[in-house]
């Protein structure tokens, strides 16, 4: 039996560099330098810009908590949910270099009570679910920046 593989839950939203560090992929307007995430290659989101060219670029790996909440209920079908369901935190993180705010799941073991506005966060990946073919699907996630040394599974 072949070894189980790991694939992103959504292709093209994040990647790893040569050192294995994960970064998000965003679009950057060629005309006004506005950033967007999730990535796209056209239709600048800046209402003052009429450009239809966005270049795909790596985004900052670090940022600060802008807002956060906690999901306490499993998603409805057809979305996958672990059984039993465990609450998890969601953070809106303002990227350090771009100023863009990116919403994402926070790594397991971190709840809303562990977060505060202005806290330093760092990007990682984590398993999201295993699909019907046995492929582990991963997603990007935020973790408290100083947690890397404590987190053995951070990628």
From TrEMBL:
InterPro entries the UniProt entry points to: ChsH2_C (IPR002878), ChsH2_Znr (IPR022002), NA-bd_OB-fold (IPR012340), Thioester_dehydratase-like (IPR052513)
Q: Which residues form the ChsH2 C-terminal OB-fold domain?
A: 57-124
Record-annotated ChsH2 rubredoxin-like zinc ribbon domain positions: 23-52
User: Entry's Pfam families?
Assistant: OB_ChsH2_C, zf-ChsH2
What name does UniProt use for this protein?
Answer: Benzoylsuccinyl-CoA thiolase
